[in-house]
Design brief:
Layout lengths: L10 H9 L44 H4 L4 E8 L8 H8 L7 E5 L12 E3 L5 H16 L3 E8 L3 E2 L1 H9 L8 E3 L1 E3 L8 E3 L5 E4 H7 L3 H7 L5 H13 L6 E2 L2 E2 L2 E3 L12 H4 L3 E3 L4 H34 L31 E3 L3 E2 L9 E2 L2 H22 L3 E16 L3 E14 L4 E13 L17 E7 L4 H16 L5 E9 L1 H5 L8 H13 L7 E5 L5 H10 L6 E4 L8 H10 L5 E10 L2 H4 L16 E3 L7 E4 H15 L11 H8 L3 E12 L12 H13 L4 H16 L1
Parallel strand pairs: 1-2, 1-4, 2-3, 12-13, 20-21, 20-23, 21-22, 24-27
Antiparallel strand pairs: 4-9, 5-13, 6-9, 7-8, 10-11, 14-17, 15-16, 17-18, 18-19, 23-26, 24-25
Helix pairs in contact: 3-10, 4-8, 12-14, 18-19
Amino acid sequence: WSQGGGEDQCPAAAGRAGALAGGARPEAADGRPGPGQEDFRPRIVPYYRDPNKPYKKVLRTRYIQTELGFHERLFVAVLTSKATLNTLAVAVNKTVAHHFPRLLYFTGLRSAKVPHGMVLVAHGDERPIWLMYETMHYIHQHFGSDYDWFYIMQDDTYAQAEQVKALVTHLSINQDVYLGRAEEFIGGDEQARYCHGGFGYLISRSLLLKLHPHLDSCRNEILSVRPDEWLGRCIIDFLGIACVSELQGQHYHTYELAKNTEPEKEEEEEFQAALAVHPVSDMTLMYRLHKHFSRLQLDRAYQEIQDLQMQIRNLTSLTPAGEGGLTWPVGINAPFLPKSRFEVISWDYFTEQHLFSCPDGSPKCELSGASKADVSEIIESALEQLNSRYQPLLRFSKRQLLNGYRRFDPTRGMEYTLDLLLEAVTQKGHSHVLAKRVSLVRPLSKVEIIPMPYVTEATRVQLVLPLTVQDLDFVANFLDMFAMNTLDTHDNALLTLLFIYHPYDAQRVSQVDVFAGVKAMVGELEKRYAEVKIPWISVKTEVPSQVKLMDIVSKKHPVDTLFFLASVWTEINMEFLNRCRMNTISNWQVFFPVHFQEFNPALVYRGEQTASSSTDFLRDGHFDRHSFAEACFYNSDYMTARTKLAADILDQDEVLESMEVFDVFLHYSGLHLFRAVEPGLVQKYALRSCNPRLSEELYHRCVLSNLEGLASRSHLAMALFEQEQANST
């Protein structure tokens, strides 16, 4: 380091420079860090356990952020009253509440009916000082250890939520912060300031923890009419910290509204930069303020996007790809480049009335619902962009959508190509009809993490296995895999067998029991594992409806049972059972895995030895999307959905024969249906028997599953080629 422009060096600096030559830290003679440098080198702390002391199991926390001491960023408290709860408080909730991670409303007395979507805490007393005291005590008791910042505002305050959140990200959490609009006490010390409650104020977690022991003393010793003055005096007297309007380079901008203010006409810089505006007299003014500031924020976002796009254009010429590497739209990911013909993303063709790629597989269907709204919006956006680019020289209006194409690119979003028949009108009134092709992109927005309820891998899984006469050849393998992967490993899983007798077999069960062999295998398992009991239920029916079978099983188990509805070809393993536990959430989500179906080895290998190396895992087969035989769900969720189904169909039991459990949850529950490929469920090839007594759709799906499970197209082509070669010779 050198100071100034002269030749004289600071002696201390010169000494340090010599000591730090080469960037090394001072070290002792034995190579260890010198004095005061211990924190700069990592050191290994050897693990040692006293053999004389009993081993104690370490209890881990539920969430890793708890173990690491992480806190949520911001908690917001809104002070309201019984008189304004259904007016101003509702306006606050509709304008800014969804922008804050956690927001609670505090009042003295509550009305008979609390507005929907608001979390309200009533203290039972309308006195302002008491309300402030109880609110601070409640925040410390319930949220003091969970959040870093606490923002307190009134219901007659409009706060720019995004600006407040940005403010706390620039402040250090290691400092006691009391930030807001600083006001002088009436007749008090000029140096002491309190934060005006009407404009909101920010308190750090460290300040709240230090303040809490003194709240009782403040309540008994400090007399004040205003709650914000009372809190400010409490903080100053016991902690010596005054309110500030600027801290660590961040300013808390506020604006005081005058009577009959028109937010749309306010052009003062102080108003445009305000984080909080006060007083807001009615709900309409609150909504107008929110509209105005939202428009300002949107304009700033668009301007920032344009600036970033300009910077990208300027820097593109300096990249190895040059200007040719500039993608459209600027700043959006480039389109996906397929590596083979199987990765090409197809375009869907549409008009203003019809869609030619339908969800049910039909070639043409009416454009309706969200798809119709999407097409209308994209056409309006195209016209708006054309007019903004060519006006006032030309003004465009739509005559007709000639062709429309769209596809979803997972790397960037939804892409559109429109062929529009337009009428262009010049400034002199001359019109001309022309066709114009435009391309648009609806980019993927910011990824949002959806909070999910907590689940564990310790839940007991109740396997349910329906068996028919056609399944007898595969039961032995199922029971062997179940014993090896669950009973031997002591996994928390139970098994219930469901024997489905044909009426003819049921009449002869006393002479010849078709399931006698299976019952003998179950008896052998129970002898081998003395603590295990495998119950079975016998059912007589010609049409084994999945819903009717589950009705019988559901009544024989508690409501909190986690069911795994399996098939006889399923190979149970611990990996899948854990995913079944994690992906199934009571009163929230059900899980329908898509199993991996291996191809027919006679067609795939054609007499050659089957490949068994680990590199060929999930190779010669496909995920069977036509099968809904496997499912994980809670009994309580099934019973709720089944009750709604019963009320809908009344006594029409024949309807149940055309439904599966998946249909029950899809149409008669508000739960999330999690449908995903499951590599842990691998099934060997077997030709399924499709019951013609089932509905046409279920029978068709079963046949299609058998056909697609034969082999891949390349394997089928080779088999046909070899057959033709054999026939020709």
